[in-house]
Specification:
Layout (H helix, E strand, L loop, with lengths): L1 E2 L5 H10 L4 H13 L13 H9 L2 E2 L4 E7 L5 E6 L5 E9 L11 H17 L2 H5 L10 H4 L4 E5 L3 E3 L14 E4 L2 H14 L9 E5 L9 H15 L6 E5 L3 H8 L6 E5 L5 H7 L8 H9 L9 E7 L7 H11 L4 E7 L13 H13 L3 E5 L25 E4 L3
Parallel strand pairs: 1-2, 3-15, 6-9, 9-10, 10-11, 11-12, 12-13, 13-14
Antiparallel strand pairs: 3-4, 4-5, 5-6, 7-8
Bound molecules: S-adenosyl-L-homocysteine and iron/sulfur cluster.
């Protein structure tokens, strides 16, 4: 099977040229793949029947991942088992939200939105919207708004498993099976958008590359998926955040990209001794090297680097650690996302005490760093941070609906 999904317009143009077709045919396929998000070559009705038959005969398919299983949390979060063409599976998470606070999806969208509101109000003062006779947020009146949500965030995987071996993470237990292709990464988004009948341009969608795998160990495919998601699907890169455990060459390459998501770095410890223990990769690239590389990223207006910090009871959650974090981040345009560790079977840590979490956050805020506590999403269905692993691996996928509420 040759997957069409994931190809850029130039790649499709080349493919069509190889079949003796004019460039406008590539544009038609591009539109069908990313704007109409069709699932079958047969349904690309802008192409002649003859051309569709030929594509199918030559082994071409759209190649979207298939939602093989669904679990729904009481908080509205949905976790999907996504099945790739070769039968490998990864997990993808859908997090709809209606409030304007720090919602726990990792996207930092609330802040961005409040900035947009200011801009919109200025525009009203300037008469633009008044002239249009419409003062409401025009970017959200699609399917989501009808369901009472302001936005949704999709958390996508970049690899089958992960090689990084962080001691507190369930995905690490899988080891690494293989990289996902750009089409498989962006395809998770298309599959979820189709499921919820989302209209890009009307509904507000954020993406976080925070699922299974380390995006910067699959750098080229990850970046190609970003291009497809921006240029094809139509989600601006400013609404995307990629999280890395700290792959130095990846951060250095990322700093040079012109079209890129925002960055989140999984700091998770306040010194190298603790970090080496919980994230052995620190032996290869230590905190100082990572912070130096992060500071070379040219930030855009209103852009901050997010530092994720998983709080592990008594390991990294004490006041002395908070003081060290403040020293580390001094002078960096940083904000901190505290993540209360989510437990998993066979992982020997414990959750921090609520009082310790509160003190940690207060100390960072008083030290001048915007610090949020990421609300756990979908913990009841194992969809929260660090809980993604393939729950079921089957020969034949079944469409099973599991509802935590029932
Ligand atoms: N591999 C990338 C992105 C996926 S993990 C990375 O590590 O950054 C996304 C976030 O979840 C990371 O910040 C990671 O430190 C955190 N995480 C992993 N396991 C967790 C757990 N059990 N509880 C809470 N957060 C966890
Ligand atoms: Fe991999 Fe991220 Fe889990 Fe570490 S935290 S093992 S990098 S998925």
């Amino acid at each position: 099977m040759h997957a069409l999904f994931g190809k850029t317009l130039p790649e499709l143009t080349e493919l069509m040229a190889g079949l003796g077709q004019k460039p406008y045919r590539a544009r038609q396929v591009f539109e069908a793949l990313y704007k109409q998000r069709v699932g079958l070559v047969e349904d690309v009705t802008t192409l002649s029947q003859e051309l569709r038959d030929r594509l199918i005969a030559e082994g071409f398919a759209i190649g979207l991942p298939e939602i093989a299983q669904t679990a729904k949390s009481v908080d509205g979060t949905e976790r999907y088992l996504m099945r790739m063409a070769d039968g490998e599976t990864v997990e993808t998470v859908w997090m709809p939200d209606g409030d304007g606070g720090e919602r726990g999806d990792g996207s930092e969208a609330a802040e961005e939105e409040s900035a947009e509101v200011v801009v919109a109000e200025e525009a009203v003062d300037g008469g633009y919207w008044s002239r249009r006779g419409n003062g409401r947020d025009r970017s959200n009146f699609g399917t989501l708004a009808e369901q009472g949500f302001r936005r949704a965030t999709i958390c996508i995987s970049s690899q089958v498993g992960c090689a990084v071996n962080c001691q507190f993470c369930l995905t690490a237990k899988l080891g690494i099976k293989r990289n996902l292709t750009a089409g498989e990464i962006a395809g998770q988004v298309a599959a979820v958008l189709n499921r919820h009948k989302i209209q890009i341009g009307k509904d507000r969608i954020n993406l976080v590359f925070m699922g299974m795998g380390e995006p910067f160990l699959n750098y080229e495919q990850f970046m190609q998926s970003v291009r497809v998601l921006v240029e094809g699907i139509g989600i601006p890169e400013s609404r995307m955040t990629v999280s890395t455990s700290g792959i130095l060459p990846g951060i250095e390459a990322f700093a040079k990209e012109t079209m890129r998501p925002k960055l989140a770095l999984s700091l998770n410890a306040s010194n190298d001794v603790v970090r080496e223990r919980i994230m052995p990769i620190t032996r290869k690239w230590n905190i100082a090297a990572l912070l130096e590389a992060v500071q070379k990223i040219p930030l855009r207006t209103r852009e901050w680097v997010t530092f994720e910090y998983v709080l592990l009871g008594e390991v990294n959650d004490q006041p002395e650690h908070a003081r060290e974090v403040l020293e580390l981040l001094d002078g960096i345009r940083a904000k901190v996302n505290l993540i209360v560790w989510n437990p998993g079977p066979g992982i020997d840590y414990h959750q921090p005490k609520p009082a310790d979490v509160a003190v940690f956050q207060k100390m960072l805020i008083e030290g001048g760093i915007a610090t949020y506590i990421r609300r756990p999403r979908g913990r009841d269905i194992y969809a929260a941070c660090g809980q993604l692993k393939r729950t079921v691996v089957e020969e034949k996928p079944q469409l099973v609906e599991i509802s935590a509420a029932s």
